[in-house]
Write a structure and sequence with these properties.
Elements (H helix, E strand, L loop, with lengths): L10 H19 L9 H16 L7 H25 L3 H25 L1 H11 L4 H33 L6 H13 L6 H11 L6 H7 L11 H10 L1 H4 L13 H15 L13 E7 L4 E7 H8 L6 E3 H8 L3 H12 L6 E4 L10 E4 L9 E3 L7 H28 L1 E3 H12 L7 H13 L3 E3 L6 E4 L2
Parallel strand pairs: 2-6
Antiparallel strand pairs: 1-2, 3-5, 4-5, 7-9, 8-9
Helix pairs in contact: 1-2, 1-3, 1-4, 2-5, 2-16, 3-4, 3-6, 4-6, 4-7, 10-12, 16-17, 16-18
Family: Belongs to the cullin family.
Protein name: Cullin family profile domain-containing protein
Keywords: Ubl conjugation
Length: about 450
């Protein structure tokens, strides 16, 4: 059965609708009274992007939407973020920077979801920069380049205060320097250029190193053993030997670089890649009963270290600070709060992780062993790929059904399924049972309803 031609959405009309969603997100981030996004809000924004990207030329606006995605971040940064940072100085400016970076990552995550179809198909075919990276690069190019000098000065001022015996906000400094590690998008270039030279300029001053060692403790992967071996071997080349103790983890970043140089002198045909998810760390955790050495992955360690600066953290706060996928964070939190070793207490105290959970460090934890290894639950990679594909297809089927029903208002079951199959056939071959299941789900979510006199006829609920 031939499908009815859907109405063409022009660029101005479609983008005006998207801007309403973007404005709503900005209001939420700015703390203005604004209700959270509902599932219907998300569906309509996602569907609008889908429609504008799948219209026949010249009405396929994929490239224009890609450009406008970047422009949205640039406009928000120049009109809202930069003015708020320029108005503040010293420690107040650092606090504002930490807040703005956290908000920016939330904005990147949400807009990437709205533009998901663009990211998955248009960008992959054109080999363009992914949406998430575009959003983070805007922050680096527009904010980092302008304020990095002020941030360096404020950081140095706080470090000098501590050297003089004053109490300072260590968590704030960790968060600020963590930004400059993250802003490099996977490399340490930004951090090294703006902070490392200062922090390491007097490598013979043990007390200076000890006083600053905690700054990088949360930001760098734990490759101390390998790095120390490489530093020993490179003693003659660098002209001096830097002693690395458990107190001096400031040198971890430098160790990674030295190991990289060392590796490159041994082979010219292989590329060295650091896979942080496979790293391990040994953490001395101080509980009320005793100190226990925890053997954990690098990501588990990063999560636990968040509780050095906070007594309680929500699921969303943990996701924001770790900047990992939801699936990865769920695995980490499950291993630390729901498995054999409950290092974290969870509210509510059940065995599943949900976005509404709250976590706190379990100071009363104890074990007969003084050294325990905390495993991660296994991941079936093949199953995960299948689940990801199924999830993508569910979104596409939902969007197709809503789009058809919004246009036709009332429609029979067979006709709806036929038109849905026709629309989706250029992406994948949809299963009839899957379409029926998605229709039932949309009914329970009040997108559709059955006619009272005929259960095989559906009515769209605006």
């Amino acid at each position: 059965m031939a499908g009815q031609e859907r109405r063409t959405i022009d660029l101005e009309e479609g983008w005006a609708f998207m801007q309403k969603g973007i404005t709503k997100l900005k209001n939420i981030l700015e703390g203005k009274p604004e209700p959270q996004f509902s599932s219907e809000d998300y569906m309509m924004l996602y569907t609008t992007i889908y429609n504008m990207c799948t219209q026949k030329p010249p009405h396929d606006y994929s490239q224009q939407l890609y450009d406008k995605y970047r422009e949205s971040f640039e406009e928000y940064i120049t009109s809202m973020v930069l003015p708020s940072l320029r108005d503040k100085h010293d420690e107040f400016m650092l606090r504002e920077l930490v807040k703005r970076w956290s908000n920016h990552k939330i904005m990147v995550r949400w807009l990437s979801r709205f533009f998901f179809y663009l990211d998955r198909y248009f960008i992959s075919r054109r080999s363009l920069i992914p949406l998430e990276q575009v959003g983070l690069t805007c922050f680096r190019d527009l904010i980092y380049q302008e304020i990095k000098g002020q941030v360096k000065g404020a950081v140095i001022a706080l470090i000098d205060k501590e050297r003089e015996g004053e109490q300072i906000d260590r968590a704030l400094l960790k968060n600020v320097l963590g930004i400059f590690v993250e802003i490099g998008l996977g490399s340490m270039e930004c951090y090294e250029n703006d902070f490392e030279d200062f922090l390491l300029k007097d490598t013979t001053d043990y007390y200076s190193l000890k006083a600053q060692s905690w700054i990088l403790e949360d930001s760098c992967p734990d490759y101390m053993i390998k790095a120390e071996e490489c530093l020993k071997k490179e003693k003659e080349r660098v002209g001096h030997y830097l002693h690395i103790s458990s107190e001096q983890k400031l040198l971890e970043v430098k160790c990674v670089e030295v190991f990289k140089e060392f590796y490159q002198t041994r082979t010219k045909h292989r590329k060295l890649t650091w896979i942080y998810s496979l790293g391990t760390c040994n953490i001395n955790a101080k509980f009320e009963a005793k100190t226990i050495e925890l053997i954990v992955t690098t990501y588990q360690a990063a999560l636990l270290l968040l509780f050095n600066g906070s007594d309680r953290l929500t699921y969303s706060e943990i996701v924001t600070q770790l900047n990992l996928s939801d699936d990865d964070v769920v695995r980490l939190l499950h291993s630390l709060s729901c498995a054999k070793y409950k290092i974290l207490n969870k509210e509510p105290a059940n065995r599943s992780i949900s976005p509404n959970d709250v976590f706190e460090f379990n100071s009363k934890f104890t074990d007969r062993m003084r050294r325990i290894k905390i495993p991660l639950p296994p991941v079936d990679e093949k199953k995960k790929v299948v689940e990801d594909v199924d999830k993508d297809r569910r979104y596409a089927i939902d969007a197709s059904i809503v789009r058809i029903m919004k246009s036709r208002k009332v429609m029979g079951h067979q006709q709806l399924v036929a038109e849905c199959v026709e629309q989706l056939s250029r992406m994948f071959k949809p299963d009839f049972k899957a379409i029926k299941k998605r229709i039932e789900d949309l009914i329970t979510r009040d997108y559709l309803e059955r006619e009272k006199d005929n259960a095989n006829v559906y009515r769209y609920l605006a």
